[in-house]
Amino acid sequence: MEETPAIVLNFGSAAVKAGIAGDESPISCFPNLADENLMHFGHAAKDVLMKRQSKPIFPYTNGIVTNWSAANGIWKHTFNEVLKANSEEHSILLTEPPFHPKFHREKICQIFLESFNVPAFYMGLSSLLSLYGTGRTSGMVLNMGQGISYAVPIIEGCVQLQSISRFDISGIDITKQLFKLSLAKADVVANFGDNFPDYPLFDMIDNIKCRYCFYRDFAKSPEINESPSYTLPDENNISLTDELFEAPEIIFNPHLNNKNCLDLPRTILRAIQLCEPEYRNELYSRIILAGGTSRLRGLVEKLKVQLQNLSLPSVKTIISTAQTKDDGRGNFGSEYTDWVGGSIVATLSTFQQMWVTRDEYNEAGPTVIHRKCI
Question: Is the 4Fe-4S keyword given for this protein (predicted)?
Fold first, then answer.
């Protein structure tokens, strides 16, 4: 369709993945973040925030745009500073979550085709692209990101829309739970509510979660010389021990986080049971975990045991964590599979007719996105 390759973009609640279609991994993964004056974005914004020189602005929340000015800034930053690419020369494949609001889809389509003047545009469901990124066309994909989690059944590339089930626990909830439990153990009274007192503290605790949290009895505790710790603004030092396996337990017991929702195993079962009976055994045997939160040590093992206990003895449950090839830059793992799937799809000859072209947009307007990107 065009001489220059397409660009594949994934804007998650926590991070942006950006790169060239056909590559095995994104060129860059950077924080989806801005400072309060919208002067700095990505890593530059994080540098300012870590010095406590500004307050954070998160362009996306729960997988969708919640600050359009900040989102526009992070999009420009991606083209101009990260990829150093002229948006007018590249078609754009953008990933999106399930049940993306119609207004948001139309507005994003309009901005990319009018403001960024891209030659063609497409929005692809993250879960479907994650599945393609593993080389499969059928499976039960559980996307577990920092801000949003969904169980999405897919049969031969067809998303079972009526069966998609949202899971109301995501990575940020585990980070907050880790913070809350550690404060309680240290008998520290803090009126932070659901918010952290500042960004550096949030970043530190989130990193502790990613590096050290695990499921006891299903994974070895991390080998560390001393317990990880953090320091509150009042200089009170807090060490973490049992909280490292207690905090992620909210995935299997949401009530511990004051959430009135199904736990993870039952969310998956619900999604499978909403599918036609002839597809269920195949979905049980192809459960794929994607997204950064899916990398918690012991999660796959514990989930398999609990799913098997809830299922009929004749049901064979097979769970895997989506993986991609390491390119030597550290770009691999379950949090990259949706980008990799988009990279594969955007280069297929059979996909080229799927783009929303400029002519189609000029004729039908932003609503064309619903017809071309189902």
Answer: no
DSSP string covering 101-162:
-HHHHHHHHHIIIIIS--SEEEEEEHHHHHHHHTT-SSEEEEEE-SS-EEEEEEETTEE-GG
**The pair of three-digit structure tokens given for residue 284, joined into one six-digit string:** 């049980």
- The residue-averaged pLDDT of 20-30 equals 95
CATH fold label, 7-127+336-372: Nucleotidyltransferase; domain 5 (3.30.420)
Q: Which CATH superfamily hosts domain 171-254?
A: ATPase, substrate binding domain, subdomain 4 (3.90.640.10)
Asked whether the domain spanning 171-254 has the same topology as the one spanning 133-169+257-321, the reply is no
Give residue 273's identity as a one-letter amino acid code: Q
Cα–Cα distance measured from residue 217 to residue 219, given in angstroms and rounded to the nearest whole number: 6
Which residues make beta-bridge pairs with 42? none
- The model's pTM is 0.92
Q: What is the chain's mean pLDDT, rounded?
A: 91
Q: Where are the alpha helices (DSSP H) in the chain?
A: 42-50, 68-77, 102-110, 126-133, 171-185, 199-212, 243-246, 264-273, 277-284, 299-310, 337-345, 358-364, 368-372
Q: Residue 202 has which token pair?
A: 């949030």
In this structure, the number of other CB atoms found within 10 A of the CB of residue 100 comes to 18
Q: With cut-offs at 50, 70 and 90, classify the pLDDT of residue 225.
A: low
Residue range 103-117, pLDDT digits in tens: 999 999 999 999 999
CATH architecture under which domain 133-169+257-321 falls: 2-Layer Sandwich (3.30)
- Residue 166, pLDDT > 60, answer yes
Candidates 68, 62, 264; CA nearest to 148 is: 62
- How many Å apart are CA 125 and CA 63, to the nearest integer? 12
Is the Cβ–Cβ distance between 292 and 171 less than 8 Å? yes
Instruction: Provide the token pair at 31.
Output: 């924080």
Tens digits of per-residue pLDDT, 67-99?
Answer: 999 999 999 999 999 999 999 999 999 999 999
